[in-house]
Amino acid sequence: MSVGELRERIEAEKAALDTMKINHAVSPLEDTSKIRKTRKDIARMMTILAEKEKQN
User: Fold this and answer.
1) Farthest CA pair distance, the chain
2) Domain map (residue ranges) of the chain
């Protein structure tokens, strides 16, 4: 995955996380662990992005 693709994926995941948080505030989600999993996935992708940028 290239740096550009990774940035796009991070932005998409952040948007999905925001949507989940808003939906959860209005009516509770069935599986609230999705919020935590998405947040951790974003952190992992950001770590990989930082490593790739450091290599270049």
Assistant:
1) 44
2) 3-55
